[in-house]
Amino acid sequence: MAAPQPSRLTSPSREPEAGGRDRYFSRLAQERPDIALCRATTVVTRTLDEELAGRQLTMAQHLVLKMLSDVGPCSQQELSEQLRIDRSVMVGCIDGLEDSGLVRRERHPRDRRAYAVTLTPEAGPVLEEAESGVPHLLDRAFVALTAAERRTLTRLMGKILDVH
Amino acid sequence: MAAPQPSRLTSPSREPEAGGRDRYFSRLAQERPDIALCRATTVVTRTLDEELAGRQLTMAQHLVLKMLSDVGPCSQQELSEQLRIDRSVMVGCIDGLEDSGLVRRERHPRDRRAYAVTLTPEAGPVLEEAESGVPHLLDRAFVALTAAERRTLTRLMGKILDVH
DNA sequence: GCAAGATTGTCTGTGCACAGATTATTTACG
DNA sequence: CGTAAATAATCTGTGCACAGACAATCTTGC
């Protein structure tokens, strides 16, 4: 921790700020991986939101369709757990998909508490188009990283996620 | 994209789920670094919040005190930009610190639109205590990573942050 | 069989991040 | 000088994530 500097406020002159006041964030991100992670995720999330703005599906809805396509009909609970989306958020997510006619809430035959969320035939093309946009999405979000660095990132995130 | 499976719902039996329905997230995190990043950050943020729950300062307030201590009095604008905290959030953040008597809103001598947020003598010990907790905080948040992996993470996040 | 607890989907309220409008002040320009 | 544009702090409203409560239904222990 550096000694507090004398009460010098931002100078309106063009001198290069010996205290590093204008590049302070870089230094902070160097010594605080937690802050760096949070701020970088904000940047990535913003990029994702921009990219998805014009499209038909939100990211959550895209993931729901993908999981249903991969493993078959699921309860909202299963979708929530595996996609790490809160149950109460999943409600609105499925609402939207149902309104668009991409999924149906059928009753689970053996557990009438649960739905069996099921894909409709209309979902196929929509999901396929969304999937086709993923590579471009990742390229924009991770422009700064090489392919090898993206794999490293994936590995590190996997380790963090594994310990809950 | 795997072919849609037949309409088989979650079986109540104990058979090991050939479809991988119960480990679906692991597969998803492997192929979607963006999702992995967002979910891992949620995990880290939760850990941080738990750790900070009993303490006097929020993470944002801690960072404000640290920056003021490092570079001297700043306007809220400078704090917002460098700490990547929204201006409108910074207001409440400084409010809290002022109520606790740790900073004062003095007027900037050459720009009466801006404040000169200034540390009080009481801030020293509080900041020092907060700083002393950081290593333990990081250890909890990144239990899953070795020291080398944490440095790698810091480097990758830095690259993402550099391109804005 | 039945009472107690767990689970599913839903709803509500809180807190945070973000965009936009507002006011006071400063800077730029004709 | 004096008007227009830019900036600092603030306030308001929106959208999202999360915790907790709730009713309906299932499961478990006795």
In short:
Helix content of chain A is 59%, strand content 6%. Chain A is mainly α.
What do these coordinates show?
Chains A, B: Residues 1-20 are annotated as: Disordered. Two copies of one chain form a homodimer. Chain A has 164 residues and is mainly alpha-helical. Chain A folds into two domains: 28-57 and 133-164, no CATH class; 58-122, Winged helix-like DNA-binding domain superfamily/Winged helix DNA-binding domain (Arc Repressor Mutant, subunit A). In chain A, 59% of the residues lie in helices and 6% in strands. Chain A contains eight helices and two strands; from the N terminus they run αααααββααα. Chain A has helices spanning 24-31, 33-52, 59-71, 76-83, 87-99, 123-132, 134-141, 147-162, and strands at 103-107, 115-119. Chain A has a two-stranded antiparallel ribbon with strand order 1-2. In chain A, helix 1 crosses helix 2 (33-52), helix 3 (59-71) packs across helix 6 and helix 4 crosses helix 5 (87-99). Chain A is elongated and about 65 Å long. Chain A starts with 23 loop residues before the first helix and ends with a helix. Residues 1-18 of chain A have low confidence and may be disordered. At the A-B interface, helix 1, helix 2, helix 3, helix 4 and strand 2 of A face helix 1, helix 2, helix 3, helix 4 and strand 2 of B. The structure holds a DNA duplex (30 and 30 nucleotides).
